[in-house]
Design goal:
The chain is α+β, with helices and mostly antiparallel strands. The chain has three domains: 122 residues, Acyl-CoA dehydrogenase/oxidase, N-terminal domain (Butyryl-Coa Dehydrogenase, subunit A, domain 1, Orthogonal Bundle); 116 residues, Butyryl-CoA Dehydrogenase, subunit A, domain 2, CATH 2.40.110.10; 151 residues, Up-down Bundle (Butyryl-CoA Dehydrogenase, subunit A, domain 3), CATH 1.20.140.10. The protein has twelve helices and nine strands. A four-stranded antiparallel β-sheet has the order 2-3-7-6, with no helix packed on it. It is globular, with a radius of gyration of 21 Å. The model has no long low-confidence stretch (mean pLDDT 96). Bound molecules: flavin-adenine dinucleotide.
Length: 404
């Protein structure tokens, strides 16, 4: 075990830190103000594309993409990417500046791994260049979607086309003005064995019959400009070549998609928690009540100390999961990925909550990042699978290990 980052990572950390200091933090409150204004709903902050171009020129682009796709990225391992994703996580919208944001990262990995040459040319290339955005449509309101075998959307062959009918919720990214493509999960054969009923298919977002009914909010945040759409698909027709990998391969693809995606969210959550902790410490140094500076209250010292303990525990677990993914593959690392997926959002929620409390009333306002962090961390106890499902699977795996 080596607890030091490599020189390569340190160099990336320093370049990313400089970029964040020069281009992201100075505009953070301006961007937040822009998105809080109702009249700017579903619009990009005007200088967004310019910042993306700068990041691309600085070589801070597609950092999440594994070494197998070096043509489009610096080819970092998961372990190398983790501390960089943590830095991006400190500002909720910043990962898109580096083309490292969900759900595009997961969708790009699907297309890179499982897409054919034509699908890659048409959709992966513009995604890798940051020209378009994407959405992932799995969850449905009428069924418990944490069990993906319940998904009911039908994908039926009709000549050289597929016809799609279904109802989706929480389609993150679908409202982004640059969103052009959705990966839709549904059933091509409801009579097949449970795990080969599902398929994934590419559906351009402007296909007739696909309607974004409304944006859903998370604790009142609409997360503009990405948004989370409720979408209906009524007799949506796409060419047969839009199926990814082939009929019945949906589960197989979902397994490949979720490993890296889940851990990226965890890395960013650690960034949110770390920044909350730093804000807590600044506040403790500068605020006075009952004749004492906050830093001298024992309870506040304890809150800060326990927060650092919890952040470092989660960070090490996250790095350990990333390392195992690099060395043994996503499948072998599934228990560690499950562990960090359970640990990171809950840890972040506790730390962010303490930070809000120490900041008093203003801690809940738009003047500090904690309120929005809290909403983001809370949703990650559900998105990519609820805690209970990960605990259920992890428990099963551990019990199985000691079965004889
Ligand atoms: C902000 C946000 C963004 C999202 N983005 C996307 C997206 O881009 N694309 C997409 O397809 N989906 C997305 N989701 C949906 C998310 O993945 C689902 O909400 C999640 O998988 C749970 O499915 P469900 O809502 O149908 O809950 P259900 O499956 O109905 O589960 C509800 C609850 O039942 C309990 N439960 C379920 N299984 C077990 C078990 N085995 N043991 C014990 N208790 C259990 C848990 O408490 C669970 O929370 C997003 C969700 C949110 C909130």
């Amino acid at each position: 075990m080596n607890f030091e980052h490599s020189d390569k990572v340190k160099e990336y950390q320093s370049r990313l830190q400089s970029f964040m200091d020069e281009h992201i933090y100075p505009v953070e409150s301006e961007v937040a103000k822009f998105h809080h204004d109702k009249k700017n709903e579903w619009q990009l902050w005007p200088n967004f594309e310019e910042l993306k171009l700068k990041a691309q020129k600085a070589g801070l682009w597609n950092l999440f993409l594994p070494a197998t796709y070096q043509k489009f990225s610096p080819g970092l391992t998961n372990l190398e990417y983790a501390p960089l994703a943590e830095m991006m996580g400190r500002v909720l919208w910043s990962s898109e500046i580096f083309n490292c944001s969900a759900p595009d990262t997961g969708n790009m990995e699907v297309l890179a791994r499982y897409g054919n040459a034509e699908q890659q040319n048409k959709w992966l290339l513009p995604l890798l260049k940051g020209k378009i955005r994407s959405s992932f449509l799995m969850t449905e309101p009428q069924v418990a979607s944490s069990d993906a075998t319940n998904i009911e959307t039908s994908i039926i062959k009709d000549g050289n086309e597929y016809i799609i009918n279904g109802h989706k919720v929480w389609s993150s990214g679908a409202l982004n003005p640059n969103c052009e493509i959705a990966i839709v999960m549904g059933k091509t054969d409801p009579t097949a064995p449970r795990h080969i009923q599902q398929s994934m298919i590419l559906v351009p977002i402007n296909t007739p019959g696909l309607t974004i009914q409304r944006p859903l909010t998370v604790f009142g945040y609409n997360d503009s400009p990405e948004g989370h759409g409720e979408i209906t698909l009524v007799n949506v027709r796409v060419p047969e070549e839009n199926i990814i990998l082939g009929e019945g391969r949906g589960f197989e693809i979902a397994q490949g998609r979720l490993g890296p995606g889940r851990i990226h969210h965890c890395m960013r959550l650690i960034g949110m928690a770390q920044r909350s902790l730093e804000l807590m410490a600044y506040r403790a140094n500068n605020r006075v009540a009952f004749g004492k500076t906050f830093k001298d209250f024992s309870s506040i010292r304890q809150e800060i100390a326990i927060s650092q303990c919890e952040i470092d525990q989660a960070r090490l677990l996250c790095l350990s999961a990333a390392d195992k993914m690099d060395k043994k593959g996503n499948k072998e690392a599934k228990d560690l990925i499950g562990m960090i997926k359970i640990v990171a959002p809950n840890m972040a929620l506790r730390v962010i909550d303490r930070a809000m409390q120490i900041h008093g009333g203003m801690g809940l306002s738009q003047d500090f990042p904690m309120a929005h962090y809290f909403a983001a961390a809370r949703m990650l106890r559900l998105a990519d699978g609820p805690d209970e499902v990960h605990l259920y699977q992890l428990g099963k795996s551990i019990i199985h290990k000691y079965s004889n």
